[in-house]
Amino acid sequence: MARLDTREKLAILADAAKYDASCASSGTSKRDSRDGKGIGSTEGMGICHAYAPDGRCISLLKILLTNSCIFDCHYCINRKSSNVRRARFTPEEVVALTLSFYRRNYIEGLFLSSGIIRSSDYTMEQIVAVARSLREEHDFRGYIHLKTIPDADPELVRLAGLYADRVSINVELPTERGLKRLAPEKDGGRIEGAMADVKAAIVDREDAKKKYKSAPSFAPAGQSTQMIVGADSASDRDIVLRANNLYDRFRLRRVYYSAFSPIPDASAVLPLQRPPLMREHRLYQSDWLMRFYGFSAGEVADAADAGGMMPLDIDPKLAWALKFREHFPVDLNRAPREALLRVPGLGVKAVNRIVASRRWRRLRLDDVARLTVSLAKVRPFIVTEDWRPTLLTDRADLAAWTKPAQTQLELFGG
């Protein structure tokens, strides 16, 4: 490996890290250095941008420790047989970069992943060494997200959870069949076993915290995972059901979806084109239906077509409503919150405002117009004091009718 300076390493390893989508920084415990001790915080406004549930933009230094790897996963640009420029940071260099970027107010935390070098245990030791140095030697109180290696010794993964706010273990592909075909050196059973160990450690620390306030935290922001979309034959239905299974079994905070991107010198078993980015977007929308809107995984999967794919031209919530019109229209002045959440075009905030407002007055269509971006999308599915859709809900062309009219943007407008 040619000798590179820090700037060249950063260019290579920051670019290599862009394929990992799981870098949100929400859900951790609050820490800051306003008491004059330590450095950094997990709060505030923030060269990777993640978004907290309240909309805050949080900047993370997102890099790989190295893009060298002893594995040869077909879909990975950093695989052993890939013809890419390699680089490697030492733990001391990553610590120095993190502190330097933080002091310049560029970042609020670190997202660190790595290719596998020498062995899984050796690589995990290097990753843990970075977090240990930041926490113990420099009293860094910012956010740390570590990508852990399922094949590593469980004790090393446990140490990662003690220093990091969030840990993540990628399941890589939605199906075991796809994993064996495209990443034969990885074991789905070991991946799930490592996720189960992290879950158990999080639960144990939560119980300990209830009894002893001084008990150390373990990954207070939980664990997450990532699935690559479009590299194998898995359908959207397969992905949704797999994600739900992971949420139920391992108490995941998030499942991230990353659309497969064609790579140089690709294997013949990979598709020649990447899937539409809209497919990735529809999967995130499906994920939100399960997490925030009360839909079961089976109901979300029912929104898919005969081939198991979500429609790209309409969102999954609208697709479900069009398939199950017997649930509509919904009376906004009488229906329970659970029914309101299923109305296309109404988000969680809008539903909460409707529930709060109708305690004092009967809602009219004009009231709804102030709560949603597209009234045309909502009207066929609701009843208000002055509106009833009559036969509109049963129209055969309802999908086209609910789409907002397309307008030509002005080249020199604004």
Helix content: 25-40%
**Count of alpha/pi helices:** 15
Alpha-beta classification: alpha/beta
- Rg calc: 24 Å
What is the H/E order? HEEHEHEHEHHEHEHHHEHHHHEH
Report the span from N to C terminus.
52 Å
The CATH topology of the largest domain, please? TIM Barrel
Mean pLDDT: 86
Task: Identify the strand order in the major beta sheet.
Answer: 1-2-3-4-5-6-7
Beta-strand fraction estimate = 5-15%
For the secondary structure, the number of strands is 9
Q: What is the global morphology?
A: globular
Q: How many domains, as an integer?
A: 2
Second rung of CATH, namely the architecture of the largest domain: Alpha-Beta Barrel
Which CATH C-level class of the largest domain is it? Alpha Beta
Low-confidence regions: 40-46
Largest sheet properties: 7 strands, mixed
Protein name: Putative DNA modification/repair radical SAM protein
Keywords: Iron, Iron-sulfur, Metal-binding, S-adenosyl-L-methionine
GO molecular function: catalytic activity; iron-sulfur cluster binding; metal ion binding
Organism: Sphingomonas parva
Explain the overall architecture.
By secondary structure, this protein is an alpha/beta fold. It folds into 2 domains: 6-223, TIM Barrel (Alpha-Beta Barrel), CATH 3.20.20; 324-402, no CATH class. The protein has 15 helices and 9 strands. Strands 1-2-3-4-5-6-7 form a 7-stranded mixed β-sheet. Strands 8-9 form a two-stranded parallel ribbon. Strand 4 (143-147), helix 4 and strand 5 form a beta-alpha-beta unit. Helix 7 (236-250) packs across helix 8. Residues 59-286 form the Elp3/MiaA/NifB-like radical SAM core domain.
